[in-house]
Amino acid sequence: MFTILKMLRQSKGRPEQSAVAMLGIKGGDTVLVAGAGHPDLAGAIGAVTGLNGQTTVVDNAEGAAGRVTKAAADAGALLEFVQAPLAMLPMDGHTFDVVILPIGLAALGAQAPLVLGEAIRVVRPGGRIAVCEPLPRPGLFRLAQTKPLTDPKDVVARLTAAGLRAARYLGSLDDIAYFEAARAR
Description:
Elements lengths: L1 H9 L4 H9 L6 E5 L4 H11 L4 E6 L4 H12 L4 E4 L12 E6 L10 H11 E12 L17 H10 L3 E9 L2 E7 L3
Parallel strand pairs: 1-2, 1-4, 2-3, 4-5
Antiparallel strand pairs: 5-7, 6-7
Helix pairs in contact: 1-2, 2-3, 3-4
């Protein structure tokens, strides 16, 4: 716990470092980032997992590979980019320690159950799935919010209904709510 608080204090002004601390990523972890919407987060995760771990980013969006590669270079990280749809991951089952859905379930719309099912398939037994849901911004920015927002209880319920264990709300930081759940062993 002390390490997480220390990382949060040191990361002031660098939200991707705060996110890595909230997600509990450690050196040596094998991490799948399902979606390249936050390339700086992927780069920061790659910097933490290091040479003993692996960070893989999957996305099918045009230009995603370039954004992720640049973010990884800026962070001094090694990571792999795979161009593929999130609902059909081209990975073997039980491959990753942690799977992160950085744009949340609400933004995935009708694809959310398929993407979550694929995340469950590729995470190892006992591994974690983390979801980052955007929160409404304060003030006038809240009026311009275009992404659908979800009640934290709904996210926990969706993770539990998908067969995951110990689903919980971790907290919120920098306009993002963080959730995690574990795959049964």
